[in-house]
Structure formats: C-alpha cells, structure tokens
Fold this protein.
Amino acid sequence: MSIDNQDLENSELDSQVNLDGQAKQIAGLLDAHANRLSMRTLKQLENGRERAVKLHTQQISGVNANHDGTLSGIFSWAEHHRIASTGLILGAIIAGFVIIQSFSHKESSDAFLLSAELPPEAFVDRGFEPFLNDGQAKL
Amino acid sequence: MASSQELSDFLRDVERRAFKQTVYAVRDDHAALDIVQDAMLKLAEKYADKPVAEYPMLFQRILQNTMRDYWRRQKVRNLWTTLLSSFGAGKDGEEDHDPLDSIDVEDESDNPIVQLERSQTILIIEKALEKLPSRQREAFILRYWEDMDVAETAEMMGCSQGSVKTHCSRAVHTLAAILEKQGLGSRAISKFGVET
C-alpha cells in the first residue's frame, strides 16, 4: 500500500516537473520572440526609457527643469495644480463664509437696536452700559 | 538608492518583455506602448529612492495597476462609443501599413522554414495566451516568464500561493492542450532551440 502511495507521489512529481518544463519552454519561446520587436517599437521603448532615466536624475538631484527653462524644487505648484486649485477653492469658501458672518452680525446688531425697548440713543450713551453693569452687580 | 545607470539597465532588460506582456493583456500595440512608458515614468518618479533590487517587483506592480487603469478607462470609453455609434460607422482595418512595423531585428535564424514554423508557433501561443483568463495569464507570465517564485507571484497578485499554483497549472494545461491540438508538443517547441 505504501509502495502504491509512493508511486502515486512520484508520478505527481513527474507530471509537475513535466508541466514546469513545458511552461518554461513556452516562456522561453515567448522571450526569444520578445527580443525581435519592430524597429519602431524598440525606438519608442527607448524614448520612454530615456525619459524615465531623465526624470530619475531630476528626482535624485531634487531639482526639476521646467519646460520654460527655469528650475524648480521638488514641490512645484505648476506640477501640483490639483493641490493649488483645491487650495484656491477652499480659500474662496472660507473668505465667503467670513464675509457672510460679518454681514449677518451687523444685521443682527441693527435689528437688536431697533427692536429693543430702549431708544437707540440709550446705546450711544457711554455711561449707560456701566450703569447697567452696576445695577446687575447690586442685584 | 539606485543610480540612473542602474535604472536604465533595469528598464532595458525588462522593457521588451513588459511590452509583449501588456500586448497580450490589452491586445493593442499602441496602448501597450503607452502603458509601458507610463509605468517606466511612474517607477522613476515615485521610487527614485528605492534600491535596484526592489525594482522588478515594483515595476510589475506598477505595470499591472496601469493596465487596470487602462481597462477602467476603456470600459467608460466603450460605453460612450456604443451609445454614440449610431452617429457614424468606424473604419476598422483601413489604417496605412507601415513597413517599419514588420521589420524584425536580431533574427539569427537563417533557415526560412524554421523561421516560418517558429513564427507560426509563436502566433498560436500568443493567441492562446490572449484567450486565457486574465488571472491565469498573469500568473503564468509572472511565474514562468518573469521567473518569479510562487511566493513572489502570490504577493504580486495579492492571492495565496495555492491560488498561484492552481492558476499556473490551469494555464499550462490549457496552453499545452492548444499546442497539442495544433500538433505542437514539447518536442516540437524544443526544436526551436529554446533554453529551459
């Protein structure tokens, strides 16, 4: 029985080895074929490689050469336009919020003065507020 | 940190395989070139500080992700193309043929019969590879063509080692069956002088 099991294991191992061998043959053939691309494709791959190497050199040196011939550091607003535009939008929203708040505060203070029981002149009197505070303190 | 020369050597070593691998996946030479170039630039830009030993895994991962991005874009584009197809018929297969595309370089074999047989065999294998499910094709290419071990392939594909073995086994069985059907067993392939 154990001999049968061993035979089975051996045959499975053999088939796995055959499978791997066949796979490597196919991969070898594909590899050989991949080395025979058209001149145009090879040229384009070379261009891509050269661009990548140029970019790598810039990354290492920490300085980028811009299209207009100027130099910039690793962080450039021109390259990070998404961050710049998001920042601008956020800034505009915050500015708008502050302006609205300031206007609404003015409106509410005007409404308070007009709707109060005391005449508006009472709020102009500089001694009125200390008088009120003294009254509250006494109470 | 890898030097620019090391990066250049690495890319020179992998670019052809990467291109063919991408062609099998996206079935479009122009798109494959764009994807490989994009992957090269991303590697150089994002991982300039990594040692060269990590480049094979990183590059494969970038390549696979770039292919996925391409498929996603294609899906959206195809949707719009289908919707707008009634406005005008396309003219497929009418592009001008460029003789540069058909020039083979580094063809050492002098015997035209062997050349023909080889190119026919490769054509059959390429068609069979294109027909494989994407996960099986990915596993086969990484494991046998990129020569990664099972653990590396599993890490790259984000699955278990058992799944990699299953994908590889199924892929090889399918390819072998297709080749046998065409009368191209392992003996027929070995006569092309391929190193295993």
